[in-house]
Each structure stands twice: as C-alpha cells, then as structure tokens.
Please model this.
Amino acid sequence: MIEVKNLCKRYGDRLAVNELTFTVGPGVVTGFLGPNGAGKSTTMRMLVGLDKPTSGSATVNGRCYAEHRAPLQEIGAMLDARWVHPGRSAYSHLRAIAATTGIPKRRVDEVLGLVGLQEAAHRRAATFSLGMGQRLGIAAALLGDPGTVILDEPVNGLDPEGVVWIRNLVKNLAAEGRTVFLSSHLMSEMALTADHLVVIGRGRVVADVPLVEFTTLACGGDRVRVRSPHATTLAELLAAPDVTVGGSTGGTLDVTGLTAEQIGERAARAGLTLYELSPQRASLEDVFMELTQNCVEYHAVAGPPPARKAA
Model:
C-alpha cells in the first residue's frame, strides 16, 4: 500500500507539492493524473527516494523507500526508461541490477520474456526504439517481483499492440493483489486501464475517486439529449427547480437533472412523440479538463498561427 500524508516539496520559492494526502491500495489499478507541472513526477520521485520531502511523508507498506531491506523486491518503479547506459545490452543492464540487489539470475530471462525483449536481449540499448526502451524500463521495474509497481507514462512510445499489452499487464498485476500506481496523459487509455483515479493540480488533490464515479464530478452532471417535434411543450413539461433544459434548436433538448427513463415516462404520459432519447455522459477527458482548468501553468493562445511575412 502507498500512503502519502501531508506531503510537501519546495524548490526555492516554488512549492511543487502542497500538503498532498492520498492512499493507493492493492488489488486495483490507480491512475495518477494532472496537468504538466502539477507535481506528479515529483511525488513519484519522493516515493522511491530520489527526492526528499520538505515535509510530510511518502511511504510504501509503512516505510520510506530507503528503510526497506530489499527495496526492489518491495517497490518496482519506472520513472525514466532512458536512464540505461547506451553501451549496455538489455541483458547486461538487468543482470547488473540483479547481481547488486540479490535477485536470482534466472529472473533476468523471465522479465525479458515477460516484456517481449528475448530477441533483443543482447542488443545495445543505444539501438533501441522508444517503445523498446519503455519495455526495458518495465522489465527493470518488475525484476524484483515487487508487491508495489509505480510506472510514470508507461505507454509512452508504444505501438497499439504495446499499449494493449501494458494495459493487460497492469490489470493482471493488480489482479494478483499488487499495488499498481501509474500516470499517463492519455485520457482514453486511462479510462480503459484504471479502476481508481487520483487527480492533482498545482500540487494538491483535486479528485480521489473510483473511475466509475469520476464523470459525475462534471458541473451539471450527466446530460440527456432529447429530440422531439414537440420540443417546446416537452421543455415546459420537464421544467423543475432541479432540472435544467437547454436549447430547442431543430427540436433538440439537452436535459440535466433527469434520467432518460424519467424523461421517456413523462413524455409518454403526455402523449409526446420522441425521435431520440440518449444519455450524454461526460468523458474522462471532459471532466479532467473541467477540474484542472485553473491548475494549468500555461495556456496556448487560441486561433490560427500568425501569417508569414512576405520576403
């Protein structure tokens, strides 16, 4: 289990992580989301002892990383797959880690097979593609067969087959009872992979909820699109203090505060014809953008790029 309590990290005048508190339990895949500069990587670095907290604590199974007698067998992490020496082969890289941490030699071949790098085991890391480098980083994270796995942007550089592979891998790790904590900027992939989400902005927790509840955090909740030749009459029928009915262009209404079933029943009782009745649930990306819109360090200017000046 990962426990982060009142965690703070200051770099000079900049507070990168600000009183951060959350827990990551075993048996589920927990996604870690936030805009660039939100403090995700800094938090992960403190979890594995690469940065020291200014205050607060970041522990795994009740201890800081350095306090574990065999850290790699407790916590497997991939924060930057590019840290491999370019002159070493994948096998040599993993063998060196195993030899210095008491991990059996046979485990090197096991993890190379697990990540699909058997054929490239003796190639120099400098010749690896970005995706192959990611696979080697994941192999290193799993080398000690740890109970807790921390992965920062694990699908970065992977092709579609690789993305599906990592998705299934982390789900299987969680199903084995391990604690799985991963970050990603790909909202669509996180929606397919994670069971629980921790979202931070400017170093603070913005949301800490199961994935199935996340989309309910959108302002106004879920909407129902209704199309009817009697849109004006239907809008009047549905009006209530806790119901919002928007627009009637082309006979289409957007209704918040009622389910599709409730709308259909009321229309049926009034004898009103419906051409469409479809729930419009907010996507993970929609809710993420809404929750973090005030937590982004910089905003691009909307509109087309400036015109080129004539020579």
